[in-house]
Design a protein that fits this description.
Elements (H helix, E strand, L loop, with lengths): L1 E5 L6 H12 L2 E4 H15 L6 H10 L3 E2 L5 E3 L2 E2 L7 H11 L2 H15 L4 E5 L2 H5 L5 E6 L2 H11 L5 H18 L7 E4 L5 H19 L1
Parallel strand pairs: 1-6, 1-7, 2-6, 7-8
Antiparallel strand pairs: 3-4, 4-5
Helix pairs in contact: 1-9, 2-4, 3-5, 4-8, 7-8
The chain binds cytidine-5'-diphosphate.
Length: 212
């Protein structure tokens, strides 16, 4: 069974998806980390971020690998911490928008999703990567709350710059990626992580009962 969790930055996707996967005993796949890792590598290689084909080729020959504790590797480097820097936040949508890049990533994400039960987190999981997912969730939250949550994870950037970056990324992502029509929308603004996880867990269990 696939559980798709989509939504913008700071809506709570990663925390919720990770905990949910733990509770259900499902694998967890963070598709954003894949685009982030590729962006990190493209910057290291000095590739122009506006050229689709070389970036698609780089994605094809440098698969992103996750280990069992969730560390992220690309081209032999552990990039788990490096991909969470604001310099990556700022440019990842530029890399992620190219079709050749998305083709490679989506293909891999589907392969990983096919290996059994999984919680997959991203922006286009319920719409494109796993349109047949058994449960689709779209998390959202007020922009101020999302910025405040993200600020705690980004000591390297000031609050104003972070809010500006978040707005720019929202705009760029939203132009290309919308919630699935059949996704359950959850506004996490005033909710605790555990409440969100419990609600989704309930939906997953209902769904498994309905299909068993
Ligand atoms: O955690 P946060 O929402 O900040 O970002 P993320 O999930 O790590 O994704 C980083 C960026 O990768 C997004 O802003 C999108 O531009 C891109 N992305 C995408 O295009 N498709 C996905 N399935 C996941 C991420």
């Amino acid at each position: 069974m696939i559980v798709a969790i989509d939504g913008p930055a700071g809506a709570g996707k990663s925390t919720v998806a990770r905990k949910l996967a733990e509770r259900l005993g499902f694998r967890y796949l963070d598709t954003g980390a894949m685009y982030r890792a590729l962006t990190w590598l493209a910057l290291r290689e000095g590739l122009p971020l506006g050229d689709p084909e070389p970036l698609g080729e780089l994605a094809r020959r440098s698969p992103v690998v996750f280990d069992e504790v969730g560390r992220v590797f690309i081209a032999g480097s552990d990039v788990t911490a490096a991909i969470r820097q604001s310099r990556i936040d700022q440019v990842v949508p530029v890399v992620a928008r190219h079709h050749p890049v998305r083709e490679v990533m989506r293909e891999r994400q589907r392969e990983l999703g096919l290996q059994g039960n999984a919680v997959i987190e991203g922006r286009d999981i319920g719409t494109v990567v796993a349109p047949d997912a058994a449960v689709k969730i779209y998390l959202q939250a007020d922009p101020e709350v999302r910025a405040a949550r993200r600020q705690k994870e980004r000591p390297d950037i000031g609050a104003d710059a972070l809010a500006t970056d978040l707005r720019a990324r929202d705009k760029s992502d939203r132009e290309r990626m919308q919630p699935a029509g059949d996704a359950v929308l959850i506004d996490t603004t005033g909710l605790e992580v555990d409440d969100v996880v419990t609600r989704i867990e309930g939906l997953v269990r209902e769904r498994s009962l309905a299909t068993s």
